[in-house]
Design a protein that fits this description.
Helices cover 38% and strands 21% of the residues. By secondary structure, it is α/β, with parallel strands linked by helices. It has a 5-stranded mixed sheet with strand order 3-2-1-4-8, with helices on both faces. Strands 11-10-9-12-13 form a 5-stranded mixed sheet, with helices on both faces. Strand 2 and strand 3 form a beta hairpin. The mean pLDDT is 92.
Length: 314
């Protein structure tokens, strides 16, 4: 049996898993990421991986590959042009650096691309030749998987779908530009929209749910109240689904995938959001793009990062 190590490098924690060739997790654990010291973090990852191997009774000699998901653009599955929210060097050949420590072939990819690859190989898009994974949380990330390959682009920013422009001179995005998909349809932007509306309208279930404390509002509160029939929250779901459909519709017209997978925190909304997005896609996607097409929720959840890292070897 061949085994792999999957690594999901995060700004606070880094998750590490030992997986078999079918993508089953044998064991997993995590370390605290040192966002100021790359060498220390890489060595801590390897020490934790060896600890998990020993616990799982898997010999290092049976590990045939290591995959790492990185928050940042990656070129040629090796060079990280910059680490988002990390004070690490730019243009680091992380593949080479980790192979120096482990002597095992290592492949690197952007973390959302990793999730997309995981869903394509092991999850909701399994057996589909083309898929787009839309990861919706604080921001919006994306991974485009076509004919067995991720589209990473010339400089590693392929799949940055959160920065499709939906409005000219629109809301300011975290990237510094205006009118981005992310500025309208991310969980963060939905919360901001809800807070602005709640300042003007306090006569609703959502306001009562959070005891009037706008600072603790989360997307989950909005969707939970919408499922209970709160009209105020249902209107916010309509707002969210319209911008989601607009952004996804643009992707369908360009890529024409078989399936779009929704992952990330906002996927917890479930059918109440998906039903609305499906209906609104008719306004933004060309009719042929909707033929034999599905939009579904991701299946891998918190395991998407480490499973996707291993999927780099498929």
């Amino acid at each position: 049996m061949q085994y792999y190590i999957g690594i999901d490098l995060g700004g606070t924690n880094t998750k590490i898993g030992i997986l078999d060739s079918r993508g089953n997790i044998i064991d997993s654990g995590f370390i605290k990421t040192d966002s100021n010291n790359m060498d220390r973090t890489l060595n801590l990852i390897w020490e934790k991986a060896k600890e998990l191997l020993k616990k799982s009774e898997v010999g290092i000699e049976y590990i045939v590959g290591i995959g790492i998901g990185i928050p940042g653009p990656v070129v040629n599955k090796s060079i990280v042009t910059f680490f988002s929210n990390f004070n690490w060097e730019r243009n680091v050949n992380l593949k080479r650096e980790f192979e120096k420590i482990t002597n095992i072939e290592t492949r690197i990819e952007n973390d959302v691309n990793i999730i997309a690859q995981g869903e394509a190989i092991f999850g909701a898009a399994k057996n589909k030749s083309s898929s787009i994974t839309v990861a919706i949380g604080t921001g919006i990330g994306g991974g485009i998987f076509v004919e067995g390959k991720l589209i990473s682009g010339n400089s590693g920013v392929g799949g940055e779908i959160g920065h499709i422009k939906l409005e000219k001179n629109g809301k300011l995005c975290g990237c510094g530009q205006r009118g981005c998909f992310e500025a309208y349809a991310s969980a963060k932007s939905l919360i901001k929209e809800a807070q602005e509306r709640l300042e003007l309208n306090k006569n609703n279930m959502l306001y009562k749910e959070i005891d009037g404390n706008l600072e603790i509002l989360e997307a989950k509160h909005i969707f939970d109240c919408a499922k209970k029939g709160d009209q105020f929250s249902l209107e916010l779901v309509e707002y969210e689904s319209d911008y989601l459909a607009m952004g996804i519709g643009s992707l369908l017209n360009v890529i024409n995938p078989e399936v779009v997978v929704i992952s990330g925190g906002i996927s917890l909304a479930g059918d109440i959001l998906l039903r609305s997005v499906r209906e609104k896609l008719k306004l933004y996607a060309m009719p042929p793009a909707l033929e034999n097409f599905e939009i579904v929720l991701g299946e891998l959840g918190n395991e998407a990062g480490i499973k996707g890292a291993v999927a780099l070897f498929y």
